[in-house]
Amino acid sequence: MTFHRLTLLASFLSRPSNFLIHSHQCRLFKFNPNRQFSLTKIRPRGDRPAPSIKDAAKKPKVKLTYSELGKLFRLAQHEKGRIGCAIGLLFISSGVTMSVPYFLGKIIDMLQTYKHDELRTRLKQMTWFLVGIFGIGALANFGRVYLILTTAQRIIKRVRQQLFNGILRKEMAFFDKQKTGELVNRLSSDTEVMSNAVTQNISDGLRALTQSIAGVGLMFYISPHLALVGLTTVPPLAVGAIVFGRYIKRLSTKVQDGLAKATDVADERFSNIRTVKAFSKEDHEIELYNQRVSSVLQLKYKESLAYGLFYGMTGLSGNIIVLSVFYFGGISMSEEALTIGDLSSFLLYAFWVGVSISGLFSFHLELMKGVGASQAVWAILNEDHNERMIASSQLQRTIHGEPLTSALMLRDITLDAISFRYPTRPDVLVLDNLTLRVPGGRVLAICGSSGSGKSTIAQLLLRFYEPQTGQIRIGKVPINEMPLQWLRSNIGTVPQEPILFSSSIYENIAYGHSSVEKNLPETILRNKVIQAANTANASGFIEQLPEKYETKVGERGTMLSGGQKQRVALSRAILRDPSILVLDEATSALDTQSEYLVQEALEKIMVNRTVIIIAHRLSTIIKADQIAVLDKGRVGEQGTYAELMSIENGIFRKLVSTQTMVDVDE
Length: 666
Ligand SMILES: Nc1ncnc2c1ncn2[C@@H]1O[C@H](COP(=O)(O)OP(=O)(O)OP(=O)(O)O)[C@@H](O)[C@H]1O
Fold this sequence. Notes:
Number of domains: 2
CATH superfamily of the largest domain: ABC transporter type 1, transmembrane domain
Transmembrane segments: 81-105, 126-149, 226-244, 305-326, 346-365
Structural class: alpha/beta
Pfam families: ABC_membrane (PF00664), ABC_tran (PF00005)
Largest sheet: 6 strands, mixed
Bound molecules: adenosine-5'-triphosphate
GO cellular component, one term: mitochondrial inner membrane
Domain ABC transmembrane type-1: 86-363
Membrane topology: Multi-pass membrane protein
């Protein structure tokens, strides 16, 4: 009878190793597939030199510090109450769990000691008592799981909001370097890993810690001698886990890089699907993607082999412990130093300790994952690269004693000795000590060969980038002293290839509504949108669409023609009634009708504004009040069309004669 019970117990106890393998594989394989970065050491704010955009964007090396852990834990500080409650409930449920082996031992001894009615009465009492205890445990578990899961979601939401906010406020140079897919991945996946590390993982880790401490204590309480035997495999296992952890970390970095590359291929090909199809490159792209995912599979084989070996070893050592405890415990029992109940309790505690210790290994790994994921998020949130936006309610009303009005923005624009290199390409001097005056309220056409820096001037005016030397002024006020939001709200832009949002035409035009004047009543805004569309000659085609202004334009506006997109973009730009209008003319010719409509709209809206046209068409250039010709990073020539054409061997004349302009034959 005793032997039979022991074999039953032994077969039950042989399962923990399986259980361990299963639970840990589930946890450990849950890596973020798209993570493309590794950890870096972040110094405290005070002694940290401002990292360059390049530094922030590249993937740094790994070193774990306490400040990194502290930062991660601070994510949970708003949820102290909920997490505290969850931890309280955790102690209750762990207490209940840990009492199970103790009571099981008592029941086994009861079976040995009492007979018939006495046994029946005692068993009944014990059962009701345990039902109560387990009920409390179940309630505590329910509360803990609910609180931890909802807290994790609350943290994820907060980090996502902060991160989205942080990303949108970054300087343009940041976006030059970062891949869209990667940023989206940070928002969706990394935030989740971070949050889990400080909620579910803390809860699991604490449970593992309390259960292993209590389990070890109770093992020593029952039999110090057996406890020492049982715990002999822990130190070698811990060493094995560290070695294993390092190997897996290296391997998983490779796996993540591989997955990121595969995702990059998919991301870029999907967004350029027209190019892929136009060149019939489907097979080529499928092959490329297959190669990327196959290399990931090869790494996964290695990873699986390592996991298999490690958990095979832990399972084996777990079983060896059970066997040695049986052996030594059996001898102790024969010497009457231990009861069968004590031995049973002991074995169950040994089982729980085994589970809990591997729970601790897993906790460590999850924490590392959280820290890893948080590195890139902290780098993004690092305010060194943020634009200085202020709430519209706090916008200053004057600057240098001048009121901030559209009249100020209509003054002459001066680019004074501007030198500029793009931060991501510091070797190329795009503008070299350039000086240019844009007459206020007039039309200036900027022309020059491709890549001469025409669009760059517009980007500097919008303060997407800061020049390394020189100053841009409107009137006498340097633009870098103006509130950024205010400056931009007074400049309307129509890029060369306008990109629309995948919403309705109405929403796309209304997007131009200046955020400085918030809370505009819907009816007024609608009228303004229609008026802007009329001015931009867009209302004709919009009214012919079945859903008119509510027509969805498709991703990036692909459901509209080039000319229609231009006119929607023009409507959006003029909705805010900007003092300065920057138009980057399309290099490719639109159809005659669209061309006419765009040109006519432009003529209407040029009145009483300073207009800078990055011009590619001779017809536009001829109509401009002034023409500036860029050459070798400077303004080579500036004047009216007639003046520039009269310069013998002039740059402009050459430009016209080499037919680089779209309608040069006109
Ligand atoms: N975001 C950027 N990062 C790095 N280099 C850039 C960036 N944008 C433009 N450049 C480089 O700066 C130079 C000037 O570019 P810009 O777009 O101002 O030329 P452009 O005169 O407007 O050309 P095009 O007429 O062909 O549109 C080019 O050599 C270009 O490769």
